Amino acid sequence: MDATVTGGHVEKQQPCKGCNDQYDVKISEAKMARLVELASRSRPVVQDAEYERRLSICSDCPGVQYGTTCRYCGCLVQVRAKLVESTCPFPYEPRWT
Ligand code: SF4
Fold first, then answer.
1. What is the pLDDT of residue 17?
2. With 39 labelled, which of 2, 16, 46, 68 sits at a CA distance of 20 to 30 A?
3. What highest taxon heads this organism's lineage (predicted)?
4. Strands 9-12 and 3-6
């Protein structure tokens, strides 16, 4: 574990949750389905074919982490892809709109 000196004190730096075996950052399918359902309640959603197209692109993207999280915006891609208003934040050229 790394340490830093701040104001004369040595502080241990904790690894992020994604790098720490103590935490599980993966989200179960059931929980993800619930999150998608909650997000979909108050906002327009895309048709199933468009949703699958977006998720397929995300699954091949170098920006997706843990199969769920976009490294460029921090969103859960399963939720982001579901909403009509969403765009892809891939740098310089969105991979889907
Ligand atoms: S950058 Fe776009 S394609 Fe890549 S994971 Fe994020 S939302 Fe999906």
1. 73
2. 16
3. Bacteria
4. antiparallel
